[in-house]
Amino acid sequence: xxxxxxSLVISHFSMDAMAQADRQHIRQGNKLYRQEKYDKAEVxxxxxLAANQRNPQAHYNLGCAMMMQQKDSAAxxxxxNAGKLETExxxxxxxxxxMGWICQKHQMYGEAIEAYKESLRNNPNDDETRYNLALCxxxxxxxxxxxxxxxxxxxxxxxxxxxxxxxxxxxxQNQQQQQPPKEQMSKENxxxxxxxxxxxxxxxxQRMKKAMQHPNRxxxxxxx
Length: 224
What we know:
By secondary structure, the chain is mostly helical. It is built from eight helices and no strands. The chain starts with 19 loop residues before the first helix and ends in an 11-residue tail after the last helix.
């Protein structure tokens, strides 16, 4: 994905009404920034803000220095402060473009879209911002479609599982219905079996009685 980044040239906001201390620290910070000494530039911009908290240039330049050091969350805070204080449209557009770029880098497409829109409200002729806005809108739409498709897949899996469970239950019921019923013993058969058992027991008792009356004689054998 190609991302067009607005040039991070430090703007020289009008400082006629600013104190001499603000100008000195911002000049020194800008010099260090151009030398890519972003950490030292950050210190100078902090000093400028210590002298004047409502200096939009100091907030914006500090945000740029932080962004170049990958301090994205802190940079966003400074850009927000600059956006609230800045009144000149072109400079305000630069503030919101950089906010949008940070959000886009972190795939926060909704936030990036809103920042780019605000930038274009202040500078409608910025094609770079318009291009980045289109990229974010396209990516956001793709993500929403992927989420919807994922939800459909989950729903389809649940439906398939329900159908499978229903089929297994139906097959089980059909199998039970196809099994032959167990034969039940009729009352007549039970009486016949009972009578046969009684007759057998009576015959056994008679044989035992007869055997007791005529015991067999056994010869006692002696040892040698």
